[in-house]
Amino acid sequence: MKENTTANEIYGYNGKMLMVDLTSRQSHWEAIPEDVLKKFIGGSGLGAYLLHKLCPTGIDALEPANPLIFVTSPLVGSRLTTSSKFAVVTKSPLTGFIGDSLSSSFMATELKKTGCDALVITGKSELPCLLSIDDGHVEFLEAHDLMGKTTSETEKAVKERMGHRTRVACIGPAGEKLVRFASITNDGGRQAARTGPGAVMGSKNLKAISVKGTHVVPVQDPDALNIIGDDLTQRSLGPATEKYRTLGTMANVSVFNRLGTLPTRNFQQSTFDEAESVTGEAMHQAHFVKNAHCANCTIGCEKILVTNDDGKKAQGRMEYESAFALGPLVGVADSNTVIRASTLCDELGMDTISTGVTLAWAMECSDKGLLTPDQTGGFSLSFGDGDALLEGIKLIAERRGIGNLLAEGSMRASRKVGQGSEAWAMQVKGLEMPGYEPRSLKTMA
Ligand code: SF4
Asked: Of 118, 152, 192, 252, which cross-links 88 as Cys (Cβ 3.0–4.6 Å)?
């Protein structure tokens, strides 16, 4: 590995990026010009610039040359509340355009402490790989033993191997199977999921990345930053964020249902007649375990929920987007099933929104006489069928039976099935729509 000694001196940044080629198992550092850092601020901005510069024209998203870019921003590593974010930017296997997916917590701060502002991964490892970055030192480690593991199993195994201070980003079985909406998971369940970066990571035979470091990025005026930090902390504890501190984003379910903006049964309705059982209030009362915080966050919008029925216990983070996509959108009103479905997606490493929207498309196909059990190998999908929802998620992650078609996402699946089903594939340029009904929430349209 070649060390770069000409990094720029610029406050808030390391001034350099780490370039990793999995094919040759080589890495080197490159300085990022100061004018680039100033023009393209933040994870998504710098990531989009780097993708534009580094991604060869016309390649398929799953080709080795597609760069998988992890990018932090100037405030990452500061003590400012909610600043611990990173972007994963790559050519999206769902859309074929720029894919920009945000995640947060200690993976962001630790990545910056390794000494880079961006980690750019290209190529494809011949064997399953665990990429280790320890204070800027890169190692390509064997990862055969990690293959097939869920995201939490992978994170646990990598931490046991690399030390518990290590931060881990990894894919689950869905990423290994190149499900086009596979996610990258970090910090015990945070997800970079939208636009399918986990499929790109899987296409590179890269199961996990472990990072740790000690670099401290220079701040121009630490006293001023402290004053701003105190002010933001105070404001983060005020009424504007109360909803996030109490019910989290799950509070949206009942509000959106009242407003008629809760996408239901594949966007055929905008209110859900059984919403009462999956509102933030109901879920909090019946399933709440604890709040969780990203690194340096004083709000703590994450709600950890657990099932409370006789079935197999499932516990995990629950957000509005997961609740809408695996509840009202597929007609499921059983809160335990919604928690189980969301946790299953997180463990298998799939975007909950794209999973729910693609399954909802398939359910509407079944309703309309397409995708009969004969065509699906005996698997039957219908709105409100919780068991079918859970089985459908597993089939997609394993690309088994009808799951192989659905793993392509709703746009490609509908083009294959045809017969007018493209009309109810609720996607824009290949990306499944989030939980906001555009006909009533007009700013969404
Ligand atoms: S806990 Fe919620 S509010 Fe805080 S940084 Fe994480 S996502 Fe943002």
From this structure: 192
**Could you give the ipTM of this predicted complex?**
0.99
* Cβ(256)–Cβ(262) below 8 Å: yes
Is the domain of 176 the same as that of 288? Answer: no
Burial of 273 (0-12, 13-18, 19+ CB in 10 A): exposed
Cβ atoms within 10 Å of 308's Cβ, excluding its own: 12
Which atom number of ligand 1 is nearest to the Cα of residue 301? 2
Residue 146 in any domain: the answer is: yes
CATH value at residue 128: 3.60.9.10
Which letter does DSSP use for residue 182 in this model? B
Tell whether 42 and 147 lie within a shared domain.
Answer: yes
Max Cα distance, the chain (Å)? 68
Residue 2 has pLDDT above 90, yes or no: no
Tokens standing for residue 61: 């998203």
Ligand 1 site, CB within 6 A: 82, 104, 244, 293-294, 297, 299-302
**Torsion of the alpha carbons at 245, 308, 267 and 396, rounded to the nearest 10:** 110
Ligand 1 pocket: which of 76, 80, 244 to mutate (most atoms within 8 A of CB): 244
What letter does residue 273 receive in the DSSP assignment? T
